[in-house]
């Protein structure tokens, strides 16, 4: 098996070597161009510019070459011979015609062919370049113009006609999105393609007003006769939009669960970045998911901040259009979930007994928009107050732990229902035996 693979590999190298060295074409204006290498039919298409002094040379191990020509197919029974000059293992012909195939018959197992094209007879010519107004500028660009572009063909030895595709280049200054920088950067877009430049749509659209250049074909470039036409001013209409959200701040919570939902009050910044000034009209709308026809905010700028104080699911939708209103984007929307208010108030704690374990009178909560709490003793004297629900009472008054017993709290808060709630109750202070605090020197009652 290994020996067989080695033989196949060696034969392949030998064929490649022969294929690479068989025919050499010179003459015409400039250097001849290898336009096509069709390994299936073992044929190369050589392109020259003008037929003056065109010559085809052939090199092999033989010192006796017989040359033949075909026009649409090889006639094995009545081949057309061509006079040649032999010089050692190299021979050449000078009676070369455009649009014909040539081959040397050495009576070997493989035969290779050369086809000649005079590009001067098929030269691409263009005198007008415009953008086709019938094509939607939000989707693609298409050219129209005045041009001459005849088909270039060659024939395989078996008689199959194959069209040779021309190559063209379209270029224009534009901007493109840089995901790492989160911004648009300038670049020159260049697109090389095979085929008819007037029979295709270009979906990579200019994102800024620009000059569009069409060059070609690239066969003409090789011979120094390339045609270049421009559209001096193309007014861009296509837009590209990128958007994101940033949680500027969100209400704190000490209740587990809720998934990705945010605790109120949540301040969210919505930001749109597009290819301005082409994209120039921005609009953010925020809806309650239950009322999609009643926006709670309608803001005509690229960036907006909104504070969510109510519970529910909200949808933020972005609409962007170009300065003429021809092209628009509605592809960006964001869902914001705000949790409902929860408030749990403990009824006992043990300050100064076990550090970090139930030693702070602290509510359990989420989505509290506003908060204030007070602690009173049995005579109605205020011992402590606080406005941050994440904080709490450490059981001290004027730096000393209060005695065990019942104390009273008053808590007022606004939840995500928009209403003010009042909670009252008592909280028991527990202490370990022998751990009662010392009374103040003035015998003041706690």
Radius of gyration computed on alpha carbons: 42 Å
Q: Report the major sheet.
A: 6 strands, mixed
Structural class determined from secondary elements: mainly beta
Overall body shape: elongated
- Average pLDDT, rounded to a whole number, is 91
Please summarize what this structure is.
The protein has 446 residues and is mostly beta strands.
Please give the structural blueprint.
Layout: H1 2-21, E1 23-26, E2 33-38, E3 43-48, E4 55-59, E5 67-70, E6 80-82, E7 85-87, E8 90-93, E9 100-104, E10 113-118, E11 125-131, E12 141-148, E13 153-155, E14 161-163, E15 167-178, E16 183-194, E17 201-202, E18 210-216, H2 218-222, E19 227-234, E20 241-249, E21 266-274, E22 279-288, E23 297-299, E24 303-308, E25 312-322, E26 328-329, E27 333-338, E28 342-344, E29 348-349, E30 364-366, E31 370-376, E32 382-386, E33 396-397, E34 400-401, E35 405-414, E36 420-429
Parallel strand pairs: 3-10, 29-36
Antiparallel strand pairs: 1-4, 2-3, 4-8, 5-6, 5-9, 7-8, 9-10, 11-12, 12-17, 13-14, 15-16, 15-18, 18-19, 20-21, 21-24, 22-23, 22-25, 25-26, 25-27, 28-30, 31-32, 31-35, 33-34, 35-36
């Amino acid at each position: 098996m290994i020996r067989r693979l080695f033989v196949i590999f060696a034969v392949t190298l030998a064929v490649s070597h022969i294929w690479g060295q068989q025919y050499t074409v010179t003459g015409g204006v400039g250097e001849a161009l290898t336009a096509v290498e069709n390994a299936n039919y073992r044929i190369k298409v050589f392109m020259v510019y003008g037929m003056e002094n065109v010559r085809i040379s052939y090199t092999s191990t033989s010192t006796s070459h017989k040359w033949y020509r075909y026009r649409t197919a090889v006639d094995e029974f009545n081949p057309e011979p061509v006079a040649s000059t032999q010089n050692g293992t190299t021979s050449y012909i000078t009676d070369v015609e455009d649009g014909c195939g040539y081959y040397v018959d050495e009576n070997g197992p493989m035969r290779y062919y050369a086809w000649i094209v005079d590009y001067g007879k098929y030269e691409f010519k263009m005198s007008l370049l415009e953008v086709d107004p019938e094509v939607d500028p939000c989707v693609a660009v298409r050219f129209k113009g005045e041009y001459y572009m005849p088909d270039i063909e060659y024939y395989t030895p078996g008689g199959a006609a194959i069209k040779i595709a021309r190559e063209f280049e379209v270029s224009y200054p534009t901007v493109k999105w840089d995901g790492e920088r989160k911004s648009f950067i300038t670049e020159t877009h260049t697109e090389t393609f095979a085929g008819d430049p007037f029979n295709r749509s270009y979906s990579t659209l200019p994102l800024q007003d620009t000059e569009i250049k069409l060059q070609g074909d690239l066969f003409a470039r090789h011979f120094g006769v390339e045609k270049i036409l421009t559209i001096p001013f193309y007014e861009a209409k296509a837009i590209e939009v990128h958007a994101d959200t940033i949680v500027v701040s969100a209400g704190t919570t000490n209740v587990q669960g809720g998934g990705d939902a945010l605790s109120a009050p949540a301040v969210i910044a919505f930001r749109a970045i597009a290819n301005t000034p082409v994209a120039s009209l921005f609009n953010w709308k925020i809806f309650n998911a239950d009322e999609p026809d009643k926006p709670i905010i309608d803001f005509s700028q690229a960036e907006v901040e909104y504070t969510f104080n109510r519970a529910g699911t909200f949808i933020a939708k972005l609409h962007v259009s170009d300065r003429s209103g021809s092209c628009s984007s509605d592809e960006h929307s964001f869902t914001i979930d705000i949790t409902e208010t929860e408030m749990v108030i403990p009824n006992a704690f043990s300050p100064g007994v076990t550090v970090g374990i139930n030693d702070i009178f602290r509510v359990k909560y989420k989505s509290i928009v506003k908060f204030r709490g007070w602690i009173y003793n049995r005579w109605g004297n205020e011992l402590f107050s606080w406005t941050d629900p994440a904080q709490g009472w450490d059981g001290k008054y004027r730096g000393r732990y209060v005695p065990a017993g019942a104390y009273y709290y008053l808590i007022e808060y606004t939840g995500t229902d928009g209403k003010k709630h009042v909670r009252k109750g008592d909280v028991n202070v527990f202490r370990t035996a022998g751990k009662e605090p010392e009374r103040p020197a003035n015998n003041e009652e706690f």
